[in-house]
Amino acid sequence: MQDLTTLEFSVRLATGIGCGALIGMERQWRARMAGLRTNALVAAGATLFVLYSEAVGDPGSPTRVASYVVSGIGFLGAGVIIREGASIRGLNTAATLWCSAAVGVLAASGRLALALLGTAAILAIHLVLRPASRLVDRAPQGNDDTTTAVTLHVRCDRGDEHHIRALLIQLLSSADPRLAGLRIHRTEDGVTALEAEVTIDGPPNAPMEQLVTRLSLEPGIHDLHWRSPTRTTGTTGHGALL
């Protein structure tokens, strides 16, 4: 087997990290738990492991290391999967980390064009199939095919604004309920008021109560309530219904 030169090592490593970073940018833009740095690190780690086996010179070593990467990345992916009541979040993030590792393995093995093609396919899945999945989720069922507009009001400390805003965008990035608009007002007393316009297919009570319950667990929130054309309800930062 031909020795792996420093230039080849650098090019393959840079390709693996770059592909992982591209995947991570899309995840970061959507305020997911595993963003740019996490996906870049996963791709870098997978690339380095396989590059090490290439540098050793054992013809069968890269294949064995790649199989270990596939199984090992499962433990990292399991850490980003969160169960919230009857729903489970983080499956897409875990699958994306797995794909980032696969892209790193391709780059390390010298298949740079295939690594770029794999990166494009992963990004296409997130960017193209995401609207398609929403169309499927919005298919009317029974008599609950009406769309309700709801306004969610959140007041939090100025220091917690970034975290609360990112969490709100993440919770409202699913098919239902979904974020239609967000307004931010900062007062002179160090409090930030967030007003989110939310649309829901069908009755809003159950999904909004679940959303309010989740947000009420954050310590920086002072006031939290939602309004629809037919009902007003909510919770304070301490979890008591208004």
TrEMBL record:
InterPro entries: MgtC-like_C, MgtC/SapB/SrpB/YhiD_fam, MgtC_SapB_SrpB_YhiD_N. It is found in: Cell membrane. It is a multi-pass membrane protein. Its main location: membrane. Keywords: Cell membrane, Membrane, Plasmid, Transmembrane, Transmembrane helix. Residues 13-134 form the MgtC/SapB/SrpB/YhiD N-terminal domain. Residues 152-226 form the MgtC-like C-terminal domain. The chain crosses the membrane at residues 34-53, 65-82, 112-129. GO terms for cellular component: plasma membrane. Belongs to the MgtC/SapB family. This is Mg2+ transporter-C. It comes from Streptomyces clavuligerus. The gene is mgtC.
